[in-house]
Design a protein that fits this description.
This protein has 14 helices and eleven strands. With 312 residues, the chain is of the alpha/beta class. Strands 1-9-8-6-5-4-3-2 form an eight-stranded parallel sheet. The protein has a three-stranded antiparallel sheet with strand order 7-11-10, covered by helices on one side.
Length: 312
């Protein structure tokens, strides 16, 4: 076991990302049961819906699982209290200042991991007292860092800047990528896209099928004046790109985005007007699998990659 496995109490240092409209209790419990760490994605849940998912996950697994909480969540205090009241032991925070909630959570006995996109923010995490950091590179789906640093560059930069246990994320969907992240200094990986496209993911089957037929280069990072988001090409993305090219303000982009756009695309399967978020690595895959199949493939291909790694 390494520091991440020991910290989180899991067999393999593989964490499933807390993705909006994909990461319900079925996905989280399946990943935890397969030896990784499942995360419920609170970003797309009303507080009482989150409570329901936590309870269903507790009934479906006796293994550790956590909740991912974006710190820009509108009902943040209520969500934090639910997580504590329901006995959740692990929280991954993102999209905000870790200093705000880390001490409060740790005082109540929770393990806190924060997602960063730069070495500078990793250092702030260490100062805030988090237990570990996720270094998420530009390749990732969903919301992204403004720095646009690739995972290959970000991992060693964060490793150099902090002594915290380090989890790598962004474009990691194969055993070979896990090995590369490990060599660069990561002690665990967070996998999003690969788990978003599994049987247990709560995303629409229409969305999954669409993403499993993408070609290389089909995604693009846009909405940088709001929160940089990696989008798949469709009519909505074309409208966003046109608006950004003519210099639209943040308010104009916010109006174009509206409410419920990600739900419409990812959860309801509207491939035209929905906000379709997925990582660059999606184009590598063309078939849906169960979580158990994905976990076995990741572990087997990692071990094979270690065995055949080239020697200079």
């Amino acid at each position: 076991m390494n520091r991440i496995s020991s910290l989180l109490g899991i067999q393999y240092p593989i964490i499933q990302a807390g993705m909006v409209w994909c990461s319900g209790w079925r996905l989280a419990s399946a990943v935890s049961n397969a030896g990784g760490l499942g995360l419920i994605g609170a970003g797309s849940m009303h507080p009482e819906v989150l409570r329901e998912h936590i309870r269903k996950c507790q009934a479906a697994t006796d293994k550790p699982f956590g909740v991912n909480i974006p710190l820009m969540y509108p009902q943040l205090e209520e969500v934090m209290n639910i997580v504590v009241d329901e006995g959740v032991k692990i929280v991954f925070t993102s999209a905000g200042n870790p200093k705000t909630w880390t001490s409060w959570l740790k005082e109540r006995g929770l393990i806190v991991v924060h997602v960063v996109s730069s070495a500078k923010f990793a250092m702030k995490c260490e100062a805030a007292g988090v237990d570990a950091v996720v270094a998420e590179g530009f390749e990732a789906g969903g919301h992204n860092g403004r720095e646009e640093t690739t995972t290959m560059c970000l991992i060693p930069a964060v490793r150099k800047a902090t002594t915290l246990p380090l989890i790598a994320a962004g474009g990691i969907a194969t055993g070979e990528a896990i090995l590369a992240a490990t060599v660069l200094g990561a002690e665990g990986v967070q996998v999003g896209t690969r788990f978003a496209l599994t049987t247990e993911s709560s995303a629409s089957d229409v969305f999954k099928d669409y993403c499993l037929n993408l070609e290389e280069g089909t995604t693009k990072l846009l909405l940088k004046k709001l929160a940089p988001t990696r989008l798949v090409k469709n009519a909505f993305r074309d409208a966003v790109e046109e608006a950004e090219n003519r210099g639209a303000s943040a308010d104009e982009l916010r109006e174009l985005l509206g409410k419920g756009r990600a739900k419409k695309g990812i959860f309801e399967g509207d491939l035209i007007e929905g906000e379709l978020e997925i990582g660059q690595i999606a184009s590598l895959f063309s078939k849906i699998h169960t979580v158990d199949e994905v976990m076995h493939e990741l572990i087997d291909s990692y071990q094979a990659a270690v065995a055949k790694s080239y020697k200079w």
